[in-house]
Amino acid sequence: MLTRQAWDVLSLAGEIYLRTGRHPVVSGLPSGAAIHSFDQLYEEADSFERVYQTIVDKVLELSRRPSGVVYGVPGHPLVGEATVTALLDRAKLGGVTVRLVAGLSFIEPVLAALQVDGMTGLQVVDALEVASRFHPPFDSDTPALLGQLYDRHLASHVKLTLMNQYPDEHPVVLVHSAGTSAEVVEQVPLYAVDRSELIDHLTALYVPPLPRTSGFVEFRETIAHLRGPNGCPWDRRQTHGSLREPLISETAEVMDALDEDDTDALCEELGDLLLLIVMHMQIATEEDEFSSADVIGGIDAKIRRRHPHVFGSTTVNGVEEVLSNWDAIKREEKGKTEPQSALDGVPVSLSALSQASELVRRAAKQGFQWPNETAARAQVQEELSELWAATTPSELEAEFGDLLFALVGLGRWLELDPEIALRLANRRFRMRFQSLEQRVRGQGRTLTSLRPDELLMLWRSSDTRVTG
Questions:
Q1: pLDDT along the chain (468 residues), means of 10
Q2: What structural domains and CATH numbers belong to the chain?
Q3: What Å distances lie between residue 106 and 80, 183, 203, 279, 323, CA to CA?
Q4: Which residue from 155, 171, 367, 368 has the highest number of Cβ atoms inside 10 Å of its Cβ?
């Protein structure tokens, strides 16, 4: 499957240098030319990068001859050919003239084997690039074609990356030796990709889109459509301010799902929360305030910047050093060598309990905390005694608040989050009280008709010890 232009160039060449001779086209090249390949480098070098660098150096050296050099690669020279892009860059810097002759890539015969249209959003990706990642670098709402899936070991790594987005049973297609008499099309579930014994240097993997919208791009389209001229009147009327209360409400529902350990509810509630986040981004885009690219690009850059031990060369020893580095980087970002106060930036919109927990945490990082759990327990007892000794409403309020704050400090020593602990206590109370109501209704009575001692007896007997 050579183009006529490529055939003419190859026919006139006295010698041809090939990146690899391991390709079916080689046996059909025009006769008369001396053919050399760089295959031996793949056996000698310890990485593809080293192989490619050596090839580029050699081809540039050959190009200095009066006759120049004809360098051939499989398929199209700008489809998955790292040596070609490197040669173009080096040639430009060195003033070397390059004539690029188009060829037929692996994509066309693979599309023919699959009988699919390449203009339906097809994404073409290098299997090596996918294998190097933890999440697929493409949109799951449109098909993807992975080239250069050259062995089962690589296929195993690719499979694991894809499974971070696609279900294990997702149907995929392996295409071997596309466009040749040895062509084989294998339909397999994703989990079995690396089990094929036919995988070699002429294998490609086709990944169909997921059956329903699952990517961020298509979801952005849905929200933009809602806000568009023919969208929903209610959605079009929303502003950043009008979405404030729904944002708080949906966040609370996410917390409820977490408290209930209900993963189905969590999945749904995270979707509702994401809807509001994307709605805010769409409103900002329309108002020319910022875009989703600004939001995602900003947080991605921040996370990478604040994790130099993951994305850089910094070495850390333990979580405490990670947190220390985080704070130092954060201060540097804000242009401060030292914070004005360790308590600056604690959001006042947090619940009082969460605020107290964050204040205690930040103070403790400065060394301001009880020396041990015993001292923290003693402080709780002291605050409780002061509460009992209070006589005026203002004293009671102050001492009650101090007691709650002391309990938050004790929670830090016990490694307990007071907000979560109280939410679980609320849940236990709700379930126990509702059980009590059901029992009383079953007796044909109401809670208000019972004496205090009867209520107490029923309450004690309804203790289900639900811990969440």
A1: 91 94 89 92 89 95 94 94 95 94 94 95 96 96 96 98 98 96 96 97 96 94 96 96 93 91 96 97 97 95 94 90 85 69 80 89 87 94 95 94 94 91 89 88 89 88 58
A2: 4-94 (3.40.1010), 107-207 (3.30.950.10), 216-289 (1.10.287.1080), 420-461 (no CATH)
A3: 10, 12, 9, 41, 48
A4: 155
